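[Q] Does anyone have a clean structure-token version of this?
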Amino acid sequence: MSELSNHQLRQELIPDPEGNLSDWERFAHTINGYAVMGDVAACAELANAGTASTLTELRCSLFFEARRDRHSGGFGLDEQLIRRLLREIKAKVLSGDLD
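[A] Here you go.
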């Protein structure tokens, strides 16, 4: 899946947070959180703080979790966090809150 703007997101593109998470990483890479946040450190700070509130911030946090999972060899996966981020992303897209 290529990069998508917030306005290009549709519900069917977002993995079901209650289902199989097999596509979550692919979806997470529809945004380059490092570029959007300015650099790796800023993206990490956002994700680690757990303060993401806008659609863009939620997507950047999900992106960082995908990178964390990859670089930890699968030992950094927080499934509950991934599901929460996906739920919040879906809710934002459904409500049209695309900031």
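[Q] Thanks! Anything notable?
[A] The chain has a mean pLDDT of 94.
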